Amino acid sequence: MKNLAARHLIFFLLISTFTATLHAQDIASFEKRITVKKLPNGLTVVIMERPEAPVFSFYTHVNAGSAQEVQGITGLAHMFEHMAFKGTDKIGTTNYPAEKAALARVEETYAAYQQENEKEVGRDPKKVEQLGAAWKAAIEDANQYVIPNQFGEIVESQGGVGLNANTDLDETLYYYSFPQNRLELWAYLESERFVHPVMREFYKERDVVMEERRMRTDSSPQGRLLEQFLAAAFVAHPYGRPVVGWPSDLTAFSATDAEHFFKKYYVPVNVTVAVVGDVKAATLMPIMEKYFGRIPAGPEPEPLRTKEPPQRALREVVLHDKSQPLYIEGYHRPNFHDPDDAVFDVLSDLLSKGRTSRLYRSLVRDKQVALGASGGSYPGNKYPNLFYFFAVPSQGHAAEEMATSIHEEIEKLKMQDVSDEELQSIKTRAKADLIRGLGDNQGLASQLGEYQATYGDWRELFRQIERIDKVSKADIKRVANKTFTEDNRTVGLMETAKPKPTDAAQPKGGQQ
Fold this sequence. Notes:
six-stranded mixed sheet; 19 helices; 11 strands; globular
């Protein structure tokens, strides 16, 4: 009893500490240290002064991901992310004028090769071979001017750490950290790769991306299942396409395509840069204007037109593979602007957050039918997406069995109120997660930049917690009943393929 009482006391103290800390880091206290400005070219800058150590972190948010692609260039948003590390007309080259002419020749020969290679009628294999050889020779000629990895080496030699980027369906992100005395160098480097990008080593890097696809999707049972599952769930919207791209596109799109994508979407009005650390807005803002202000202005890209039509019937995909079984099902849900967005955040925590979550307790701990189980929103949030349930069956259990246990948990959500303790724990964890996310410069930069870019106001970071705090038991039941219906369900199954009989197992003798 003493141990139990002690645990309750510790839990109460943790809640009090989290709440007090959150209150100390409320909107008003942040506003004193944050400066937001839209530059004349349209680029948004967010600066937070946090002089705890002589370092700073940044987060560049480009409001374009793979959802902005069209058929034929899937994977190009991710491909350009790779190109952003290849340098500029001043970094990564021994002789840019000569390299520029060589790269133009690469594109000319590639266009000729592709035109012949993709002919449906009258394709000449010998001509394809000749044109392919000319293209590869042009690539070799351009490569002689390349200084590999010079951009990254400059960053690292000057104390930069965490140089990285990532692309998803909704956005492309660039980030790393630098010592405080390298502020102007950073502003030059980060802006330069968006002022003067060079599509060098494009086709070499395209092969790298193809290998990424093989590793993460083609050679991964889970990757293959997710790709087929999303393609079934989204029949119209780009969320049904893989971020890494379809294989045929990865062997077809060109550096010219990448330049067109860059010019359309990497315009200042589509970019937000957040900087957090030992900086002064009065000092940094003129530097931002000097370097980022030189990025040429351009029109804001038009919004995505295609909307996913309402799902009218159950959809199912079944894959047979020499792997362990897997199960996933998803339900269409609205985007992050919907008034019920916070309710889906609560549902995700309730079902998936740790060993006390409902899916873990039911499928893994109690019934022992699964090795792992989770649920949440996927694959993006800018547009209407899915709320998914995923389970990995334990040995001796089939993928189909997961549906029964998952649907039992869904029915509980529809029919029974969550307990006061569960709901309060979820709200406390949301506050604690926010505090943890604000604990370092990079976390702050990413959160502030994300919310400024997505909502148009970094303050929504705190308001989202307020919205979660207002979610009621009735809200959870209402959203569960509205969302988790059979007609709105897409199911993906990975079934373990039975081994084929070997020749040795066949009856001896001649054919009958």
